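Recall from the previous chapter that SMILES is a line notation for molecules. Here it describes zinc ion.
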Amino acid sequence: MAATKSNSKAAAKKAKAAPAPKAKKAAAKPKAAKKAQAAKATKSAKPKAAKDVLDFGEFPAGSVTRHEVTLCLSCIFKLFTNQLGLAPRTAYNEIRRYAPTVGELTARGPARPFFKATGEKNPHCPYCDAPKRWHARLNVYRVEGGKASDAARRALVKRLPTKDEQFLMTEEKRTARQVFFEWLERLGQTLDFEEDAAWMSAAARAYLERREPKADWAAAFDGARAVRRSQRLEEGWERDGARLFLAPALYNDVLLVQYLVSRSHRHGGRTFEGRLTLPDLVGRMRRGGHLDAQGITDRDRFDVLEQLVEHLTGGDATARLHFLTDRRDLLERAKEVIRQ
Ligand SMILES: [Zn+2]
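With both inputs in hand, we obtain:
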């Protein structure tokens, strides 16, 4: 028993020791060679990335969004050593344990030591000018709660390694309405509102995937050039050549989503039915029987819109959000640049 243990320990040591001389060699090489090696490393790393343990493939469409922020290790190391007076070794350990809050990581205007990557080839920290090797990428995945996504999330968490807290999970409560509008805002950021046909179709599909994740929306939209309200379907969708027909309830909610997502971008909402003002939208919903179907009897159009939004979003019902923070790059970068 003991022999096996020491054997495996020795093997582990060997495995750990193996990459070390390579790293030293790289450090001694001139810059150009280093660059080439870095490029090579990125290339060979690609197939590995595909098999990453953090795989959201099993999650319902639209239930996961990713937020990336960069952390400058030089800034934080200087803070710990110069201002807080920590010994370098202690500072290193503190940085490895560093667990920023979701609020810090997803802030619109990140504050030191966080910043948004600019996409530059050789970026420098906007606060202390430290080069790229000091920059750690932190990814936060926002997962909406729900039956299908809860099962997928539990399975994923089971697979994730627990060592060094590479992954952190936190949970927050919101209302269904808040969760919906956060989703809608992110959707709006990805759409190009100059290309009406493209964004309207993309918005419709994103919403339908979120609403009915099990339906085959890829097939529904594949090659579809027009989306219409069906006169005969009561639910779901059907194709007739290049035209996609949606059941009225789906179609009307798609119009509402398009209206909501585009109204701040295009001076009034734009939908499959053209540019709609609020009275246009409400009138259309009323004539189409959409208000009756939802039991909306208000006359005032702002009240009607509020009611429509309540139905669309789920209103004040409790919704859970799960945030998964990927700290792997932070741990790796810290090891490389600080613990030498
Ligand atoms: Zn910095």
